[in-house]
Amino acid sequence: MYIKTNLKFKITENKVIEGFHRISIQISLSGQVFSVHGIYRPPAFPFNSFCDQIESLLASVADNHSCLIVGDFNVPINLTNLNTVTKYKSILESFGYVCTNSFPTRPKTNNILDHVISKQIDLGRLKNDTIFTDVSDHLQVITSFKLSSNKQMATLTKEITDHCKLNNLFLNYLNNVQLPDNVNVGLQDITTSYSHFRSMSTRTIKKNVKLKGNYCPWMSLDLWTLIKIKNNYLKRSKRHPDDVQLKQMLSHINKKLYLKKQECKKLYYERLLNNTPHSKLWRNINTLMGKNKPTTSINLSDEEGSTTNNLEVCEKLNRHFSTIGKRLAEEIPIDPGSDHLSRIEHVQNTIFLHPATVNEVRVVILSLKNKKGCGPDNFPRLEFILNASKSQKLFLFLRLAIPMI
Questions:
Q1: What region does 221 belong to: left with phi over 0, alpha with psi -120 to 50, or beta?
Q2: How many alpha carbons lie under 13 Å from residue 188 in its C-beta half-sphere?
Q3: Is pLDDT of 150 > 60?
Q4: With 10 labelled, which of 180, 194, 248, 312 sits at a CA distance of 20 to 30 A?
């Protein structure tokens, strides 16, 4: 591994195990940290030990570091039908990495044995070129990594709810509402009213900001604000490296930024998977895992011949699985004198669920945390119970108990 003398770097790993070589460095440039790992795996080196080394390496890379793993792995990643290749790619994908070069690096076998691996979020900043030379039986791969990316305008939004106003509106509604005899009608009215009061008490803030071209899709206004604050403290701490208070504030804001980032990522993935039709669910999961394989045609052969027409393939599969049970059952010999029902074990004890009482529901509701008690309608489970009248409490308990009973 050759490094320009004007770059600030440090060697974090340099080891050899049974011919397996690995050297790791960290380069600091323009306020960013880049991890670069060079690897050589001999063909005779045990594959499971190699996977352990790769997994340990990927787990050691910090989330905020860009990372490149390059070298001669002697793993033909283009042969996707091999179990070793499947395991190797699964390890990379589980950490959010992918092999970026797709041109054979050993012409004699037409296999991709030399790999350039990077994080999926950095794919837009990376470019590979394969060079034909006579230096080795392996071709050379030249990789360029763009340090900065173009910025683009984006609109970030945030909803702010005035809970004091919401509480007052809803409590006033509860104090004046006439409870109907039909619980279902009352439930619909009270839920609709609460949603209306919530929309009246909520305002949306929009801000046009400049973001990098490869910015994360879970960026929010709160996260962007914390990043701006962190960058401000970072600049001030560089101008005043001996200021202890600035260092403490920078450390504090970094922790808050990390927690907010994890929260935004979790919310983004939950929305992406929960609000997706089943027809597109696996496509989104494969996109997140970096498994964007092109669709291949199916060639199905049976006693009637072979076909690649999707409709005919579906009809043949449907006909097979809808009749296979009956055909297999006809092949099973049956003894007319045997009683098959006598071999079925009967359960003597029965299960009976008693209806929940109002007091049982009340105890369960009061044991819940208010912030974690809302359902899809954003209706609070505890917020107004203690302030409501006796009849209102009973009505609310019944409304809240419906999902539980």
A1: alpha
A2: 5
A3: yes
A4: 248
